[in-house]
Write a structure and sequence with these properties.
Layout: H1 2-14, E1 26-27, H2 32-54, H3 66-82, H4 95-116, H5 124-154, E2 161-167, H6 169-182, E3 185-192, H7 201-210, E4 215-218, H8 220-223, H9 229-235, E5 239-242, E6 255-259, E7 262-267, E8 272-273, H10 275-294, H11 296-309, E9 315-321, E10 327-333, H12 340-347, H13 369-376, H14 384-389, E11 394-396, E12 401-402, H15 403-406, E13 422-424, H16 438-451, H17 454-470
Parallel strand pairs: 2-3, 2-4, 4-5, 11-13
Antiparallel strand pairs: 1-8, 5-7, 6-7, 9-10, 9-12
């Protein structure tokens, strides 16, 4: 077990960046752009035909201007895009969704027409004719695209998506048969579930990248309890499909497909991978810099009070374990007596955390009088914003833990070290120090990693303000 953890730690130390971002933002791999261009061009062509056939009626017998035609088509194509009709799989021939979307788009067209040309009345028969022609032409276009694609793939004229299979030995043949049945995938290689182990996963990703793979199929039993690995594949711009699927709770947005008659869940990575993470980093830096400028007097006041309350330094710097298990010094306002670290060894028996991985005491005798106040309102954490400016931490993420705590980790706990640590996080807004079970903390950290989005970060920041003001779970 110890050897496995050491190997895992060594692998993490080699990881160059946060799990959520590649070194540089990359464009998603695969022929998605060709599909997008083909479908949009086809829709624009057939919508233009529908508009030409019916457009003169909407302008009292005169053909509409070029600007009007472009505006109408933009509204319809944008509506189709928002409704996901340009996504891979069967979305493009979901005719029910196409009809519903074009009806909605026509409502928008009528609204803008009445807004900018209120003096021209549109007859009901004209609206029906235009809607019928739009739906008919778009559906005809999609049918032609689908027939053409099947023909080109069947005769191997059109290149197929390069895929890689990772599965348990028992699932391999079933998955292979299902994928071949689709006749749109080129299977370039395969591996067993051991390829996803901590000591093998980066070599596996490099091999997949060298083969020019655009999509990876992974059996559920091979990736079970390892859902966070999807971040690694996305960092390479690779779409992940899971099959077959046992219905277990998964915390990320997924797309359902049918691959050769087998249910499939797909993690479709964004067109530009890593962009959200870099937006997050820019927000962290800008917000922190502005906050420090306006709250500088507060820092000065706290420093004076700490100096008057007890002897010792104003700031407390402790070694914490951050991204890729690298050590860094975290900044805090001092809330304890100067020799607090030495006294902790004598207090270990009074630790209130069940499994002892982290150390927490509600009435810690080392805490100073002003320290209790600072901790109650989390003011002691304010200097960590300097760590955010230095890029060692983020505003939101799993809390960085001391070396003493990380030394007690099991191998599966180290996933929290693959993302940038945060000043606040899901743990802090879900109970803070009231949570005395480290496994519950790990569950919250994994939930954050698997669900991560910019919107989730903002939600946690807002909830942090509420929790701090109410003094929930603070000591």
């Amino acid at each position: 077990m110890e050897q496995k953890v050491t190997s895992y730690n060594s692998q993490l130390s080699e990881a160059p960046l946060d799990l959520r971002a590649p070194i540089f933002p990359r464009v998603r791999k695969g022929g998605w752009w060709l599909r997008l261009i083909t479908l949009i061009t086809t829709d624009c062509f057939f919508l233009s035909i529908a508009w030409i056939l019916c457009g003169y009626k909407l302008t009292s017998g005169k053909y509409s201007t070029y600007t009007s035609i472009v505006s109408i088509i933009i509204i319809q194509v944008t509506s189709l895009f928002i409704q996901g009709t340009y996504k891979p799989g069967k979305k493009r021939i979901d005719y029910g969704n196409l009809i519903k979307t074009l009806v909605f788009a026509q409502g928008l067209i009528v609204f803008f027409h009445s807004l900018f040309e209120p003096n021209i009345d549109i007859q009901r028969s004209v609206l029906i004719d235009f809607l019928f022609l739009s739906v008919f032409c778009v559906c005809i276009g999609r049918v032609l695209v689908d027939i053409t694609l099947k023909y080109l793939r069947h005769h191997k004229i059109l290149g197929r998506n390069s895929v890689f299979i990772i599965s348990t030995t028992g699932d391999h043949e079933q998955i292979l048969t299902s994928i071949k049945r689709e006749k749109r995938y080129d299977i370039r290689g395969s591996a067993t579930s051991e390829a996803l182990d901590a000591e093998n996963r980066h070599q596996t990703l490099e091999r997949i990248n060298q083969l020019g793979i655009t999509e990876v199929f992974i059996s559920w039993r091979a990736i079970k309890d390892r859902m966070y690995l999807c971040w690694l594949f996305q960092a390479y711009g690779i779409t992940v499909h899971l099959l077959p699927m046992e219905f277990q709770p998964i915390y990320r947005d997924l797309v359902f497909y049918n691959v050769g008659g087998m249910p499939c869940l797909s993690f479709v990575c964004p067109i530009i991978t890593g962009k959200d993470f870099w937006i997050k980093r820019c927000f962290d830096f800008c917000f922190t810099a502005i906050f420090l400028i306006f709250t500088f007097p507060v820092y000065i006041a706290i420093a004076i009070v700490i100096k008057l309350d007890s002897p010792g330094p104003i700031f407390y710097r402790q070694t914490r374990i951050g991204l890729s298990r690298k050590q860094f010094k975290v900044w805090k306002f001092r809330t304890m007596v100067p020799d607090a670290d030495k006294l902790q060894k004598e207090l270990e028996a009074l630790n209130e955390v069940k499994d002892g991985v982290i150390f927490k005491m509600k009435d810690d005798p080392r805490t100073t009088r002003i320290g209790k106040f600072l901790r109650r309102y989390s003011l002691d954490e304010l200097p960590q914003l300097f760590n955010v400016l230095l890029g060692e931490m983020s505003l939101v993420g799993p809390r960085p833990l001391p070396t003493r705590d990380v030394d007690k980790f099991s191998a599966r706990h180290f996933i929290r070290q693959e993302v940038l640590p945060g000043v606040t996080g899901l743990w802090q807004v879900s109970g803070r120090s009231d949570i005395s079970d480290f496994e519950q903390i790990i569950k919250l950290d994994l939930n954050y990693i698997e669900n991560w989005s910019l919107w989730l970060d903002f939600q946690i920041l807002f909830r942090t303000v509420k929790v701090v003001l109410k003094k929930e779970g603070a000591y």
